[in-house]
Amino acid sequence: MPENTTPPSTRSLRLGVAGPVGTGKSSLIATVCRAMSQELNIGVITNDIYTDEDARFLRSAGVLPAERIRAVETGACPHTAIRDDVTTNLLAVEDLEADFAPLDLVLVESGGDNLTATFSPALVDAQIFVLDVAGGGDVARKGGPGIARADLLVINKIDLAPHVDVDVEQMVADATAAREGGPVLALSRKRQETIDELSTWIRWMVAQHRDGAHTPQDPGPMAPHFHADEEGGYIHSHDEAPGALHQH
Ligand SMILES: Nc1nc2c(ncn2[C@@H]2O[C@H](COP(=O)(O)OP(=O)(O)OP(=O)(O)O)[C@@H](O)[C@H]2O)c(=O)[nH]1
To answer: Where does the signal peptide begin and end (predicted)?
Structure first.
């Protein structure tokens, strides 16, 4: 093999799905499984703070055999499990890949989290960041590492746009500008043509990964943020070394 050529990958594409609480991450994963499980061999890992609620939702949706959907319980700081100490998630992904080999695609859902949570490239090969129109048309313009540099930005629930006074075209244009031209997809699980576009992007990304043509990018650490606790809360940031103490 010539030097400097990335070999084709025999491992699954590990695709992270992040975004604020309730933007539709679980629904997007259910939609992808429903649309693509005939052509791709798929597994799913969910991250929840204290429960396996997202995994149970996906199992009950019947979009994949239940044993292909596994839950990681992350504790109070869910972005830590996808960014700073990815060990539990990595083990869960590797177990799933071993049990159902060869998988084409493992979708890893982050716990519903704040606007800037991103995955470590040590855990996923590519990531989707999900916003929804109900969060307001301005959100995309505000940027942040996930919005600016995820491999794909999804603006979800566009069927709701008329009810929340959001101009989808404008929101997509603002997001595209914030991403300096990176891909942005307007999605609704009620509009088949948007589901087809999402499937096309995933098919392309799986092929890129298989051919060794895709290099995982780190969108960057999340912004400093606030956690409420019994003593009132604390601010911490993730640009510190893994395991560093929270700033109180
Ligand atoms: N109208 C509409 N509602 C949607 C769409 N996608 C998801 N929803 C609804 O949005 C709500 C949140 O969806 P979820 O998929 O649970 O969101 P999530 O991001 O996984 O939520 P967390 O895991 O709690 O962060 C649910 O009531 C879904 O039914 C969509 O395309 N259109």
So the answer is: none
Is 7 domain-assigned? Answer: no
Q: What DSSP line would sit under 142-161, residue for residue? A: H--HHHHHSSEEEEE-GGGG
Q: Do 82 and 47 contact (CB within 8 A), yes or no?
A: yes
Taking the chain, what is the end-to-end CA distance rounded to the nearest angstrom?
53
pTM of the model: 0.89
The helix/strand count (H/E) of the chain reads as 8, 9
Which of 74-88, 99-113, 152-166, 227-241 shows the highest mean pLDDT? 152-166
Count the helix, strand and coil residues of the chain and give each as a percent rounded to the nearest 5. 35, 20, 45
- Ligand 1, atom 23, lies closest to the CA of 112
Q: How many residues does the chain have?
A: 248
Atom of ligand 1 nearest to the CA of 19: 19
Rounded distance between C-alpha atoms, residue 164 and residue 116, angstroms: 23
Residue 83 included in any domain = yes
Quickly count: other Cβ atoms within 10 Å of residue 172's Cβ.
Answer: 17
* Residue 231 lies inside a defined structural domain of this protein: no
Distance 27 CA to ligand 1 centre (A): 6
Domain CATH for 48: 3.40.50.300
Q: Do the domain assignments include residue 230?
A: no
For residue 131, what are the domain limits? Answer: 13-223
Task: Give, in order, the Cα–Cα distances in Å from 207 to each of 10, 143, 183, 213.
Answer: 11, 29, 17, 8
pLDDT beyond 90 at 143: no
Given pLDDT bands bounded at 50, 70 and 90, which one contains residue 228? Answer: low
